[in-house]
Amino acid sequence: MARTVDPARSAARRKAITQAAATLFAERGFENTSAAEIAKAAGVSSGSVFYYFADKRAVFRSIFEQDLPTSRELVRRCTAGEDPVASILTMVDELSVEAMDPIAPGLLVEILRQAGKDPELMQVIGQNAAILRAGFAELVERGIRTGAIDPALDPHETAEAIEVVIDGAFVNADPGRDPRPMLRRIVSKLLSHPCEPAGEPA
Q1: pLDDT for 132-152, tens place per residue?
Q2: The listed CATH number (3.90.550.10, 3.30.450.40, 1.10.357.10, 2.60.40.10) that belongs to domain 66-191
Q3: Average pLDDT, the chain
Q4: What architecture (CATH level 2) is domain 9-59?
Q5: Helices (DSSP H) in the chain: which residue ranges?
Q6: What's the predicted TM-score (pTM) here?
Q7: Between the CA of residue 140 and those of 70, 82, 89, 98, 111, what are the distances in Å?
Q8: Nearest 5 degrees, angle CA 66-CA 8-CA 63?
Q9: CA distances (Å), 133 to each of 26, 87, 107, 111, 152, in order?
Q10: pLDDT, tens digit, for every residue of 14-48?
């Protein structure tokens, strides 16, 4: 009789392995973390890591693959809002809060280290960025149409600029500092209509 697979149990174990690996990769680095260490931290048997994942690189990619449905849902929810500027700032808030996670700086370092070694990883990172960029661009375009955003802005260039601002929060991540107030200020200024030039003195 064929062995019955419990999808919920499998999903829970994959998630546990991914979460344990994220912490270990951030603390020790990808190269210095073994599958046995990941299994121990996840509370599963040593063979479970390669039962659920093809190899250690697949485990690393899974950390970022889980962002894809989250990003799609964030964009879906925010583009359904009535106020495009408020929706953009909500996206900025929810994306940048992750920079406060203690493992964020270590994972960023490992992404940079592994980028040239794993084209599939870069596809995942690029796909996630494209989802968010499209959401930001749609909201900027809508804000321009309604007069809420500077009409001189190009929606796609502005979306890319917002992503750069958010990326900066991760590059300069400090778990003890909330980056959201400053990022909201920067993005709000970027989107606002330029000040009218001062008149000539009488």
Answers
A1: 999 999 999 999 999 999 999
A2: 1.10.357.10
A3: 92
A4: Orthogonal Bundle (1.10)
A5: 7-28, 35-42, 48-52, 56-65, 67-79, 84-96, 104-114, 119-146, 155-171, 180-191
A6: 0.88
A7: 21, 13, 11, 23, 29
A8: 20
A9: 26, 13, 21, 20, 18
A10: 999 999 999 999 999 999 999 999 999 999 998 89
Angstrom distance (rounded) from CA 53 to CA 140: 39
Tokens 């697949």: give the residue. Answer: 58
> Locate tokens 């449905």: which residue?
69
Q: Is the pLDDT of residue 197 over 70?
A: no
| Unique residue bearing structure tokens 């502005």 | 158
Where b means 16+ CB within 10 Å and e means fewer, 33-62 reads: bebebbbebbebeeebbeebbeebebbbbb
